[in-house]
Structures are given as C-alpha cells and as structure tokens.
Amino acid sequence: MNQKFKTLILWALPILLVIALSYQFLSSSNVDSLKSNGTTVAPRNSAVARVSYGRFLDYINSGRVTSVDIFELIGGLILLARRSNGMPGGPGQAMQFGKTKARFAMEAETGVVFDDVAGVNEAKQDLQEVVTFLKKPEKFTSVGARIPKGVLLVGPPGTGKTLLAKAIAGEAGVPFFSLSGSEFVEMFVGVGASRVRDLFKRAKENSPCLIFIDEIDAVGRQRGAGIGGGNDEREQTLNQLLTEMDGFEGNSGIIIIAATNRPDVLDSALMRPGRFDRQVTVDAPDIKGRLSILEVHARNKKLQEDLTLESIARRTPGFTGADLANLLNEAAILTARRRKDSISISEIDDSVDRIVAGMEGSPLTDGRSKRLIAYHEVGHALIGSLVKAHDPVQKVTVIPRGQAKGLTWFTPDDEQTLVSRAQLKARIMGALGGRAAEDVVFGEGEITTGAGGDFQQVASMARQMVTRFGMSNLGPIALESGNQEVFVGRDLMTRSEVSDSISKQIDESVRIMVKECYKETYDIVSKNREAMDKIVDLLIEKETLDGDEFLSILSKFTKIPEKERTPQLLS
What we know:
About 4% of the residues have low confidence. The protein contains 19 helices and eleven strands. It is elongated, with a radius of gyration of 36 Å. Strands 3-5-6-7-4-8 form a six-stranded mixed sheet, covered by helices on one side. Strands 10-9-11 form a three-stranded antiparallel sheet. A two-stranded antiparallel ribbon has the order 1-2. α4 runs parallel beside α6 and α12 crosses α13. By secondary structure, the protein is α/β, with parallel strands linked by helices.
C-alpha cells in the first residue's frame, strides 16, 4: 500500500468518527419535545430506568426500540474486553501463561556497583571478569579464552549473593533478565517449560545479555527423588532448562547467573561445566571482610570518636553482610530512641544481643528465681574461664532476652576453622556448667528445667564426636552421614547405616562421654563454690558483668589458665 494512501486513511478515520458522533448526538438529543396540547413527550428510544431482560425483549417486539447507539455499544464491548483481559483467567490471560515473568532491563539501574560490595573479594573478582568479558571480549579471545556460560553463587543466607548479581547488572551495561526459580513453577502442565523457552527466546533476541535466577533450587532439585517420580511438572521444567542452557542449539552471548544456599539438592546435570562453568562460594566474611563491610554501611552513620569499626568487627565473629548491615541500623535506631547524637559501644553491644538472642525482656522481680538463674549462668562462665580449651567469657547477664531468662556470652576465635577434641570436650563441659552449679548449690531435688537447651547442645556435640569425627572408643570411623533430612530433594526416607549392635554402642559411648564430662564439671564447680557465691551476689546487684570484671573477681580466688588465641591481623 502506498505511504500517501496510508497517511490519508489515518487522517480520514478520526474525522469520520467525529462527524458520526456529532450526527448521533444531534439526532438523539430530543430536548423537551412538546405535543400540541402542551404535554411533555419522553423520547421514544430513551431509557428512563433499568429494566429486566424479559421486559427489554417485550420492548423490542412491540417496536418501542427503534435504534441502537452503535458507538456506545462498541465502546462498552471494548471496555468489557479490556477489563476481562486484566482479570485472572480472563480471555486475554489464556495465552499469557507460557510467557516468562522475568523482569527485563535494557540497561539495569540497580544503584549497586562493585564498590558497594565488600567482604567477598574472591567472589567479586570472578564476577568482575564476566563483566570485563562482556565489555572487552578481545582481551580474552586473543588468547583463546571463551566466556563462561554460567556462574553459580553458593553460600549461606545473607552473605551477598543477590547483591553481587545487582552489582553485575549495574556495571555490565548489557540487557539484564532477573527472576526467581519459583516463577517457573505453575499448577498447569507444561507452563514451566514454556516459560523457560520464552525466556531464552527473548534473551537470544537481546544477546549478549545476562540472566539472573535467584533461588534456583526451587526448580533445579535432584530429579527422580521423593514421591514425585520422574514425570512431574518441576522435572519437565528442569529438563527444558538443561536443554536451553547447553543443548543441541547453542545460546552464545547468554550468561546465566544463579544463586542458591542449598547446592546439595541440585541436580548433577545442572551443576556440570558447560551449564555452570563456575561455582563461586560466598561465605561469611572473616575479620578483614567484616571491617570492609562495616566501612560501606557506616558511610552515613555517626559514630563516637572512641568507637572504631575494628572493635565492632572483632565483636561480631560469624556475622554475615546482612547481619552487619542490620546491626548498624539497629544501633542507629537505638541511638535515636535514647536521644543521642552518635552511636556508642553501648548501642552496638545491645544491638548484637538483640540480633543474636532477641528483644530484651523485663527484669526479674522474684528474688529466688533471680538467684537461681544467676548461679546457673555463673556456672557456665566459671567453666568457660577455668577450662583452658574453652572460649573466653565476654559477658554474663540475668536480664531476660527472647526465650532465655539469662545469658552467658563467649568470644570464639575468629580464625578457628578446625576444632580439636579438647575444644569440643570443653564446650560440652561449659554447657553442663549451669546444671552442675544448680546441683552443687541447691541439691539434686531443686534442679530446674533451665538446662534443657544446654542438654540438646551436649547431645548433638557428643553424638557427632562418636559418629562423625571418630573421637570415641569405637575408633576413627564415620558411622553416620551428615545429611539425614527427608523430602529435601534426594531420599524418600532415612536409611540406617549401622547395625542394631553398633547403634547400642554409639548410645553407650555418648552416655559415657557426657557422664565423664559432667563429673569433671561438678568437681570444678564444687572447688570454686566461694568464688561463685561472691560473683553471684555482685551479678544480682548489677544484673550484667563483662568478661574482664568477671575474671578480675575470679582471679582473687583461683588461678585462671591463659587462653591460647590466634592473633587477628587486619593489615
């Protein structure tokens, strides 16, 4: 069709529409028609009230409906169609089930760059290479290197996997697709596989590009496990994903980045090179990493001059990036609540306690309960201080937090990657210290349920020493595997790996080990009863004692062994 003719039609259609609407309006206006005798006649075709469908048909049969406003009819149908398209299950949605739900950005503006990611330098370096490959491919192709097809980010929650993906999107400068693994899953058969095909179709149209799939374990679990068999909808979706990632047809120019904290349940075909060429581990940061993370999150925080980020980093072993961000935010909220101008060490300590143990409760008013809890907590701290292999005491308090009526904090070694038998035994004795103190002071008839949580920890540590670490009289052998969960993607039911006689020996070894540790703990507490009474009186008065104050009082009654600590270097 000629371009001039198209232009003429585009101009003529609105003009004709305006003329038709004007004619319809003038012909149907019928303002106050009067009969010759002066009575008012209602327009013959005007609706004066709502009528039933049957009466409407009677009007048509009697000839009272002489014309229909076609423009209003068409407009109503269009409006009805548009409304039904937007409704779930409407006719417009029928063909949308198989379309991908991925968010698409030609140049993603996440507000996050690699400078905003700290504490995971190794992972950041691997991902920066991907961005460099997209921007300067000749740097790698000149030496025969090819771009990785996929990168799998693995690590516990809160370590910064999604933040790294945002940084890649913010710096790559290429089209970016982002979605969750659960968005592939649908109750209708074949929808998940269709969404996978549509996603890669759009990605190929915009290559080179990046696809980020968060929580990929929702769709990438091991096939043929559990009740689902081998033909359920999730497995068909996974099969299509495997084919699109590395199948008969190539997908050059598409880089897939996925994140999960459950790599153990992923299908082996999904993990192989060619689909995910790189597996980047994003672990909890060490002290240097925590310091760099704190420097990022403390940019807009006011800190007192005597409060250093290094002291906070030493105070928070085991914290992830999300934990540290939450810590500084909680400290800032607490500072504003206390009407202070800057964050001090007091707000940091209270925020750490809140994150780890929960909200602070009301102080105890019952004198007997308070004294009993004080002896229980001092028993933990006493064993932690007098057993050389145990972590040093940081704080003892009888102020309730969360479900605990009292707490004893220890400072673990930050660089501790391997745990010795002496350290595990010391931790068992430390957990038994509370019950031993109750037994020594109040007698066996007055012991309480306060040691229930301690006994669970003791049973877990002792059983692992026997069955997994080979630290018992059964010898250096692993008698149980580490993964005993059911319905997490592999086994339908747990399988016993040992005979009944070996199970009985395991139970007996655990019982003997705990019994020996409790006897040693009881003896230590009995010998230091005088020091414990003095510390309990002071703890009831002040409600909280820090580690240095506790040790200064205890050192007046007994000799405290020197703890062997690994120096934490920040340079």
